[in-house]
Amino acid sequence: MKPAPTLSSAFLQPSGNALPGPLLSLREQRGTALVDMPLPTRKTENWKYSSKHLKLSDKLATNLPAGSATTSAAEDGYRVVFRNGVIDPQASRLPQVDGLTVQRFADLSDDEASALAGRLDNTLDTNATQMARLNTARFEDGLLITLKPDAVLSEPLFVIHEVTATASGSAFPRIYVDAGRHSQLTLVEEYVSSGDQPVMVDTVTEFMVADGAQITSIRLTAEDQNVQHIGATGVRQQRSSRFESHCVGFGGPLRRHDLQLRLEGEGAECKLNGVVVTQDKQHYDNHTCIDHVAANCNSEETYRNIAAAESHAVFNGRIHIHQDAQKSNADMNNKNLLLSTGAEIDTKPELEIYADDVKCAHGATIGQLDETSLFYLVSRGISRREANVLLTMAFINELVTQIPVEQVRDSANERLNRFFDDTFEEA
C-alpha cells in the first residue's frame, strides 16, 4: 500500500524573527506538532474534491521576499498593506479613533504577545482546517485589531494582501480582531498579485465578537492564475452580537476558503453571502460551518457559484444545532449555474440538529441558463451574448449589490465584466 503523503520538512523552517518571544515560541511549538502531518487526499472528506489541486513542492516552502506594490482598490481611506505576508507600515494609513488600536504583531510587547499567543486558533476547528495550522507555524507578521467597548469605526478598514510572484514561495498573513461590547467595524480583505511564478498564500483571520458588537467582513479574492490561495476565517460570537460576511471569489489553480462561526451567546445573529466565479480549468472550494451553541440565535446563508469551460466549483455548508440551542432559526441556500457541459459543480448542504424547538431549512440547486428566457431576450433584439450576460449577472446581482462598500462592488463588477468577455463570444 502506498504510504499517505506528509508535509515536507522544508515547510517547517520558518523565516523572519521580528516577532516577540511568545509568538516565536508559539510558532516553534506549532511547527514541531506538524512533523509528519498527513496531507489531505481524496479520502479526506473535507478535501475530497480539492486535494488533487494542492501542490506543495519544496520550491513553495520558502517565504516570499519583500516585493513592490501592486494596484489595489483602496487608494484612499484607512488601509493596512501586507506585502508577501509582512505589513508595510509606509504604505498603510491607520485610523486614529478613540477605543481602536491597530498593531503589528512585531510591535507588541511581550505581555501583549503572550496574551495573543494564548488566543490564536481558538476560533477554528484546526482538525478541519489543516492548512491554518501551517499558517500558525509559519507567519512572519500579523495584524491585531482591538476595539474597546462602544468603539465605532465609521469607515471601512481595508487590509490589502499583495503578493509579488517574481520567485516561487509562500506568504502567511495573519489577522486577529478583538471586538469589545457594542463596538462596530467593517473589515475589507482584498487579495491581489503580480508576477508569474508559482506561489501559495495561506491566510488566517479570526474574530472574537463580544456582546452586542456588530462586525462586517468583506473578502475579495482576485489573485492571478499562478497563485494557490488557502484561507480560513474563524468567528466566535457572544450575546446579541451580529456578524455579516460577504465573500467574492474568482477561481485559480486552487482557491479554498473555510469559514467557521460559533454562535455562543443568546440572541447572536450572522449573515453569510458568497459569490464564486470560475472559468478555464480553475477550481474554487468553499467550506462553511455555523455552530448554533446558544438559544434564540439566527443564521442566514446564501452562496452562489458560476462555473464555465472546464472549471470546478465546490460548496459544502454545514449548520450544527446543539442540544441547548432551542428556538434556533437557520436558513442555508446554495444555487449553482453551469455555463458549459465541461464545467462541474459539487454542492453538499448539511443540517445536524440536536434541539427539538427550531426552525431550519436548507436547499441547493444546479442548472443552466434557461433557453426560453434566452430566446425571449434575443427575439426582442438583444444579442445572444448580451442576453447571456444579462441572465448570468441577474443570477448573482442580488448578492453583489448587498456588498456594503462601493469600492468592493466596483472591483467585483469590473472582474465580472472581464469574466463575461472571456466566457461569452459575440454572436
Question: What's the topology here?
Answer:
Layout: H1 21-33, E1 78-83, E2 86-87, E3 100-104, H2 110-117, H3 130-138, E4 143-147, E5 157-165, E6 169-171, E7 174-179, E8 184-195, E9 199-209, E10 214-221, E11 227-237, E12 242-250, E13 254-263, E14 269-278, E15 283-292, E16 298-307, E17 312-321, E18 329-338, E19 344-353, E20 359-368, H4 371-379, H5 384-400, H6 406-423
Helix pairs in contact: 1-2, 1-3, 4-5
Q: What does this protein structure show overall?
A:
The protein is α/β, with parallel strands linked by helices and 427 residues long. The protein has one domain. 17% of the residues lie in helices and 39% in strands. The chain has 6 helices and 20 strands. Strands 2-1-5-8-10-12-14-16-18-20 form a 10-stranded mixed beta sheet, with helices on one face. Strands 3, 4, 6, 7, 9, 11, 13, 15, 17 and 19 form a 10-stranded mixed beta sheet that branches. Strand 1 and strand 2 form a beta hairpin. It starts with 20 loop residues before the first helix and ends with a helix. The mean pLDDT is 94.
Characteristic key phrases:
alpha/beta; 20 strands; 17% helix
> What count of structural domains?
1
Distance between the termini: 53 Å
**Number of helical runs?**
6
- Strand tally is 20
Query: What form results from the Cα inertia axes?
Result: globular
Strand content: 35-45%
Average pLDDT level: 94
Widest β-sheet, arrangement of strands: 2-1-5-8-10-12-14-16-18-20
Structural class: alpha/beta
Major beta-sheet overview: 10 strands, mixed
- Gyration radius from CA atoms, angstroms: 21 Å
Question: Roughly how much helix do the residues carry, as a percent range?
Answer: 10-25%
**Helix-strand string:** HEEEHHEEEEEEEEEEEEEEEEEHHH
Low-pLDDT runs? none
